Amino acid sequence: MELIVRGLTKSFGRRLVLDSLDLDFGTGVTGLLGRNGAGKTTLLRTLATTLAPDGGQVRALGLDPADRAQRTELRRRLGYLPQNPGFYPHFTVFELVEYVAILKELTDRRDRHREVRRVLAEVDLADRARTKVRKLSGGMRQRLALAQSLLGDPDLLILDEPTVGLDPEQRMRFRALISRLGENRTVLLSTHQTEDVAALCERVVVMKGGRSVFEGTPGELAGAARGQVWLSDRAPDAARLFWRTADGRYRALGDRPPGGVPAEPGVEDGYLLLLDEPVEVTA
Amino acid sequence: MPVIALLRPLARAIDWLPVVVAAALALLLAVVVSPGADLEPGHGLLLLRMAGVLLGAAAAFALVDGMEASTGAVPVPRWVRQWARTLMAGAAVAVAWAATYTVVALRVPPGSPSLSGAAVEAALCVLAGLAGAAPAVRRNHARPAGLAGAAVLFVLYGATQMADAWPVPDTAEWDAVHAWWLAALPLPLLVLAAAHRDVR
Amino acid sequence: MTGSLVLFEARRLLRSPVLWGAAALALAMAVAGSSAWLPDMTMVTIGSVTASTIVGAAVLISANLAAGRDRRHGLPETLGALPGRAVTRTRAVVLAAPVVGALIAAVMIAAHLGYVWVTGPVAGRIDVYEALGGVALAALAAGLGAALARWTPWLVVPPLLICLLAFAVAVNPRGEYAGGFLPLVLEHSLGWGPRPSREHLAYLVALGVVLAAGALLRHGLRPVRAVVLLTALAVAVPAGMAATASARSGTKLPAQVCRAYEGVSYCVYPEYVAWIPVWGRALHPVLSAVPERARARIPVVRQRVASPGAMLETDEPVTWTVWSTDPTLHQALLVGQVAGAVTGLTGCGTGRAQAMVALWLVGRAGPLLDAPPPQAWRPHGPDLPVSMKEVPMGADGSLVVPGQLHGAQYGDAEVGYARRLLERPDAVERVRAHWDTLTAPGTTIKQALPLLGLREEFPVKEEPCP
User: Are residues C242 and C287 part of one domain?
Assistant: First the structure.
């Protein structure tokens, strides 16, 4: 396994955010799902070595981040996109990525410039290299942040909500890029987009209250909802969750509503049932 | 060597405007106070002290790093970046203070007591400003965190006023008190060392 | 909407640990500053207002952050689509921040004045307008902070401006150069006459309105804003000029009143009668050791406006309009003067029993220091060693007097025998019994020693005084 987590615990004040978490991540793309405050970002920050856990152990790429020397070595092989990346607005796109490249110890100027151009091309920003960051749109800034995380062709890629602000075309490009990267390295991403998980993750972890409540493939997550997803013509009374769909019918999760017919479950159904919170949603 | 390569982008990343404004203000005052006449040594001393506080408050803004979140997981440690910022800002304000001192020294009447002892006060003010902001920018990456330097400086200024820590030249206290200022210099350096550590 | 927003901003500011922390620091500074002196409420009020500028500085920065908040953290996008416009947010800050700032400054100033009043004994009077000036200053700072936030995008400007204002005040502490236009004037002396606190308060309030209107003008020139600004300016400028003109216009000092305390007459300015018992207690160790008839030798103790030459110009023992709580300063000077007067010592005391007895009296009231070196008795520069501390005289500089007997010369022998006398339990009886002999100008120390039960121990200098 490329990434092993054992008994990971983290609190902020009296709030327990990670609760004795045990997880294993291998090569491929793993998606992290969970409500706001479930502990996803805290887990990713801990794995990205920017946050020290209160307890437990992490082993990433065979290295122990608790050890200073091994942490530095891990950082050389790690790409990280934080949830709220920062920018220097007066830098050009190229300068900003080059700055991070220097921090990633790409000391040879020619190699560094080649690498900067490569990652900018990966996120379709090559033609914006001379543009000031302040002039970029929100989606472009997100791609710029993604570009810096790809520097040095990292063995471990940790992405916190990478698809926020991307237009549909860029999202598709992102999926293609990540699925390609996931062929020979570990990619861990958190998202609220279940369709992204379904489209590109080989594995999914659902977190709730600082614990993992599901680990498996997207198909298994969807399968967990089998027999609990229904379509009906009338608003159900006893469903755990239901919403009106575009064709005017109701999609209900939980017990079969009167007149309900079974429907094919998706990742979103499995995820919502796992969270187990009665909600009414109207589309 | 990454540190050398870092200097140029870091120098560009630093918000120099506060230092430039503070330096211009200090120099301008040194030139325009009592125009056309010699500068009273007492006023010169006040000017140098104010320049120290001004430049310390301004230098603190150099530590604010808008990309702190994105650069937390890189192999070049945080302390390298933050110390590089500290040294660059410190050097810039040292030049600005020295320029102010030169103007003041040229304008006080010949034979006036030397005000060079105020340099240690200015050094401590600048370091205190930086040390005040360093823990704040560690937790908060937005620009208002830089104000913590000014806040700490104002508190220290008030506290040292109570302790009669601002002597006048040609008195027994001048050297004695400045010996204490000199002895206090490592304290902000220790705070800086602690605050510039890696975030984990 | 403005009302709700004003309350929202006010609640936020009232909960600010920065503002209350600044108030606590200001109060600590004010208490520390005033605890070194007997409380003259005129000066205490000025000290309190000076300390309250810390609150003003914190209010300036807090109001600046509050007014500029909508330009940071991506809020412009969020707020841009709301019906409440930027001017509403500015208005809320310029209405809430001055009130909260003034309130916190008022609490701080009132707490300090109340504390000093309770601990007493208080002289002088609280100048309500002066105190309100400190309150207005905090409100003005709020207006300034808001105006800066609206007119400049740089967060560094408020602290730089605070430094600049502090410099302007420090470089002109007596307000000699357009002092009425300064935020405050640091120094005062009874001899300068009453401060123009009423005019200065009007100036501060009007200037606060100018700044608040200036903040709102950033959102466009509107008739009401322009009229308010011009009206406030029309008040601020003449008020500042009036405050400048009235400052140090000179005054006739009030007639002194005289009171007796333990047989000694004290003539003081009417507002300082409360300090007479303090002086009386300071002199008790001296007066209780001398015969009743000797007290008649003591001239009236007269209060002077603190100034460096006051004591040396008169043979009367002097008290001042400033009085340190450190017994080694003003109190030691007074004790030395009275000890010299009661023993009839004038000029030089070397080798004379009068000096020895006077030093013994001084030693009964406080620490008896070693004799100053010979060069201390000559006209001295500031770096010459003297055995008396430099005694601060408030705004009027300080006084350095060699020795402990009003400048009368003495040496190691006089101090040595006085210390021996202090060690004797029967000293008071012996001194009283031989008082006339001991205080006769011609009695030498050698002649006095047998009368006091002391043996020859220290070499007495025979050379005459210069």
Answer: no
Considering only CB atoms, which residues of chain B are within 8 Å of chain A?
A: 1-2, 5-6, 9, 12-13, 65-77, 81, 141, 199-200
> Could you tell me if C185 and C314 lie in one domain?
no
In a domain, C457, yes or no: no
Q: Do C239 and C373 belong to one domain?
A: no
Are C266 and C228 members of one domain?
Answer: no
In a domain, C184, yes or no: yes
Which has the minimum average pLDDT: A174-188, B75-89, C298-312? C298-312
A107-138 pLDDT, tens per residue?
888 999 999 999 999 999 999 999 999 999 88
d(CA A80, CA A85): 10
Domain holding C410, by residue range, is: 257-452
Unique residue bearing structure tokens 């198909």: A219
Nearest 5°: CA angle at A262, between A261 and A263? 115
Q: Are A190 and A31 in contact (CB under 8 A)?
A: yes
Q: Are residues C192 and C261 in the same domain?
A: no
Cross-chain Cβ contact B22/C160 below 8 Å: yes
Q: Does C239 lie in the same domain as C267?
A: no
Instruction: State whether A82 and B70 contact (CB < 8 Å).
Output: yes
- Per-residue model confidence as pLDDT tens digits over C48-79: 999 999 999 999 999 999 998 887 766 666 66
* Three-state DSSP class for residue C422: helix
Single residue among C246, C266, C301 that ends a domain in this structure: C246
A103 and B76 within 8 Å at the Cβ level: the answer is: yes
Helix axes C157-171, B41-59, angle to 10 degrees: 170
Distance from CA of C205 to the nearest CA of B (A): 25
pLDDT in tens, C102-120: 999 999 999 999 999 999 7
- Among B46, B159, B172, select the one facing C171 at the smallest CB separation: B46
Instruction: Give the per-residue pLDDT at C394.
Output: 65
User: Which residues fall within 8 angstroms of residue A129, CB to CB, at 6 or more apart?
Assistant: A92, A93, A94, A117, A120
Option in B1, B74, B199 nearest A100 (CB): B74
Do C92 and C178 share a structural domain?
A: yes
Name the least confident of A65-74, C291-300, C381-390: C381-390
- The beta strands (E) that lie in C330-395 are given as 390-392
Whether B18 contacts chain C with CB within 8 A: yes
Q: Quick one: pLDDT at residue B10?
A: 93
Q: Contacts of residue A87 in chain B, CB cutoff 8 Å? A: 66-67, 70
Q: Which of C18, C152, C156 to mutate to test the interface with B (most CBs of B within 10 A)?
A: C156
How large is the average pLDDT for residues C436-457? Answer: 82
ipTM confidence score: 0.88
Are residues C380 and C361 part of one domain? yes
How many domains does chain C contain in total? 2
Average pLDDT, chain C: 85
A134 — contact with chain B (CB < 8 Å)?
Answer: no
As a whole number of angstroms, the distance between CA A54 and CA A236 comes to 45
**C463 lies in some domain:** no
Distance CA C67, CA C22 (A): 20
Return the residue of B nearest to A160 by Cα.
B70
